[in-house]
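Much of our argument rests on the idea that a fold can be written as discrete symbols. The record that follows shows the chain in one-letter code together with its fold in token form.
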Amino acid sequence: MTGIDSDEHSAQAAFMPGPSAAGGTPRKQLDSEESESGFRSRPKKSQLERDPGMPASTWRLRSDAWEYLKFAIKRLAISGGDFSMIAADGEVWRSLRSLKTIELYWGGFGQRYVEDIAELLSNGEFDRAHDMITRAVNRLRGTTVPDVPEDDLTDEERAEHKDRQDPRPRFEVLIVDETTEGGRDELHTDLLKLRNASDQFIYDYVIVPTADDAVAAALTNPNLLACVIRPGFTDRTRQVLSRDLRNAVALAHEGTANSPTTPMSPLNSVRRVLRLADTLAGLRPELDLYLMAGAHIENLAGAMTHRFRRVFRREDQFELHLSLLRRAQHLYDTPFFTAIREHARRPAGVFHALPVSRGGSVVGSKWISDFVDFYGLNLLLAETSATSGELDSLLAPVGTIKKAQSLAARAFGAKRTYFVTNGTSTANKIVHQAIVSPDEVVMVDRNCHKSHHHALMLTGARTAYLEAYPLNDVAFYGAVPLNRIKALLLDYRAAGRLDEVRMITLTNCTFDGIVYDPEKVMAECLAIKPDLVFLWDEAWFAFARFHPVTRKRTAMVAAEHLEDRLATDAHTTAYREQRKRLFDADTGEPAPDEAWLNESLLPPPDARIRVYATQSTHKTLTSLRQGSMIHVYDQEFAHGAEESFHEAYMTHTSTSPNYQILASLDLGRRQVEMEGFALVQKQLDLAMSLASAVSRHPLLKKTFRVLTAADLIPDEYRQTERTMPLRDGLATFWNAWATDEFVVDPSRITVEISGTGVDGDTFKHEHLMDRYGIQVNKTSRNTVLFMTNIGTSRSAVAYLIEVLVKLAGKFNDPHEIRSEDALTEPAAVMPPLPDFSAFAPEYAAEVPAEGPSTQLPDGDLRTAYYAGLRRWNIEHVLPHELRRRIESGDVPVSAGFVTPYPPGFPVLVPGQVITAEVLDFMSALDTREIHGFDPRLGYRVILKKDQSEGSKG
């Protein structure tokens, strides 16, 4: 196992130009030469070194570049420096060159502002340059721009200064048009004239001349909410981009080069416009696209309505303005939150349940007045039992809740979305009950969340466990390889039982950050059984929808892509050709399983896309605790599936749902539609900062080790050589997520802690939480998982690094007295993770009398579960006695679920044969929490039939 490669580094920035010649040129010569960045040449270092700690995102690069300039120029101004001093500081010129490109893709001061600063520095006017840089830094920090004389402001600064005083929410609109500098100024002037004090929002234009620049802006500027395409743009950028960003732009174009949604028109310009529109929609589906053309827009509108929201003539600037504001209002709308806020403001008389409503049982009480002091009166004013009027009913929504759910479906790319107020555990049970009937087979990864095991027990489905690859060195599982899933489907086909297989349930991403390729998994499984239903547990992956790269591996995007792909003629042709290879032309018999396993299978064009995803909104996006969503992309939903879903939803949903949770789900959806990309990009970037700090700091890397894809994903499931792709930049990250069977969620940093000498549980509780107040969710015997989220700050990451340094010093101090919980052997010495043994014969599938005699793995959880609840049917057996029985040839059967935390999944389920391997694994665990096991009594074991009958008698 290896940690972060020593030579692995992140992009200094997506915009850094390549190495250039050494400086030392006389001042006169500098003024007469042009650099590759468009400035007059500046002295540069002979090689632009890329610091591994620098960011791969423009959020960090832009901020850090301006901050560095402020620091460097202030130092020069105070010291009375001259040009020779700044000439020696190549970082200043690298920052300016980067910012010149970056500012093209962001609203605000613009490229000319950067050029003016460069000119001031060239002339030695450090004070004036510092003032301009300070105004830019204040804008990025969100602080008030200091008052300065109007005469000292540029036109761009004057407009920017006025905007910064405006408290309204602001966004940016991308315009793609090959226009002159004067034309860009005219557009900005026209925009200012269109603004009205009554508008709810304000926006600024980002104007780029080429298709490449439009894609670069979409990849880097999260403030964009809309894009206006004018057909006059050209294709190739003239900006100096890094290799990484150039490659990312090329990958984006390639993704839509043969888009099935792009009609082939004889007009080349129409094809170019549609291709760019498809590319932008694929990258940022939340962007609204508008076309602004000249003549014959009636004909263009008919040809392009599939992608553009509206088509305008160039003179219809005011109509475009109104459309942009109106669309922003649709995104901003939170129907349920607005309704409950209005309800709280309105006087009412409560003659219903809920004494706490409107503070009735709290306000005026001498004993619980601290309730109001702590939570505030609004919480109580918003509490109500009303399910009519503007507040609606979660069980039968017709108004604000229904609209809020529809907006969430739009945001997450689903056909339908349902809110759940008691967690994803309940969401999983709803989907299982809606889809599965007793005795139907569900294939599920064994290390999934316990709610799936309980749901399978409740439904009476026959459970066929899929084994993920084990990571024995760190005591947790990875994910289930696709060929294992295909092989089991083929086994059911050979046994004549394929029709019984109803659903496949997988966890994407796993607790430890292993991410599947859902589109590939579903496509190849549908090739074997075209009516399969898929449930993707995305409890920890809701954020992924809002980043251009991670989005591609979400269930809803995969379902949409698969539906589009199956509708193409190219797919139909390829499918027919593959079927000729996979079936004997004379007998119609399928080829041997090996042929099916060695090919990338294609689903039939008429396969039904039936996909469900459950997400813990509260885990990775903004929501109160237990706020979750179910997303539905099911082509059969309106043809019978909807009724069964609603029955299941009614079964598990409270008639008294928490309205505060519902309101937070509504607000959380608004947030990710308006700023999700920015928040997720920051989250990923901060995770990379943490990983880099641990790998570079001399004391930290001695004590801790960041696990990478090389540690978490076996080589056969990775094509990408780089073990932390995001550290290499956006293009490498993109390529890995497009090609590898499994990838690692970069927001999750798993740190191996064997060097501390203590186990993960002790490290979590006694060293991180109790001593420093740092909360982590998961540990294993020798690892700790640190997760960044959209609420993580740079200060929080800095604090964690500081704490880890202190702990590393403590653990490396030879005079430090170790506590009694110190490990007496290396933490990595663990018995192998136990595979699922088997269901006992009385609960297992019968071996078929004819055909292959392979024992299929499915078993009856429900019968075993209830057998284990009858006190006369069970006994408690201590571990040493259970081991003695196994060694003597006995076959004990578990009477219930046994779930240690960590690793957090049932090591034993009802009806499972207890083996020595399970006991070895359990004996090595020193976790504080094990559900279903009482150390005083031992394991619950189902008695043999004759024993249980005797006990009952």
The first strand starts at residue 170 and ends at 176.
